[in-house]
Design a protein that fits this description.
- The protein is mostly helical and 89 residues long.
- It has one domain (3-79): lambda repressor-like DNA-binding domains (434 Repressor (Amino-terminal Domain)), CATH 1.10.260.40.
- Helices cover 69% and strands 0% of the residues.
- It is built from 5 helices and no strands.
- It is elongated and about 45 Å long.
Length: 89
């Protein structure tokens, strides 16, 4: 069984699927930050140094144990040469 098959089996539980869906925007955001950091060839430490923060702050963000402020996300975006845009659908 691959990852997607396993996930679909778990999602047969509607309550679990709803909880996952609630967290989806945060997961997507974190995946995008990791993708951009790697694309720029930066380690967590290098990104942190450029931002004037600690590597542990980047690690906590990327591993899901920290919910960042909009200000922190904006700093990351600018450090990675991007702009932060938040949209409500």
């Amino acid at each position: 069984m691959n990852h997607n098959d396993f996930k679909m089996t778990l999602f047969e539980d509607k309550e679990l699927k709803n909880e996952y869906d609630k967290m989806s925007p945060l997961y997507e955001l974190k995946k995008e930050i990791i993708r951009l950091r790697i694309e720029k060839g930066l380690s967590q430490k290098e990104l942190a140094d450029l931002m004037g923060t600690k590597q542990s702050a980047i690690s906590r963000l990327e591993n899901g144990s920290y919910n960042p402020s909009v200000e922190f996300l904006n700093r990351i975006a600018h450090t990675l040469g991007k702009e932060l845009h938040i949209t409500f659908y």
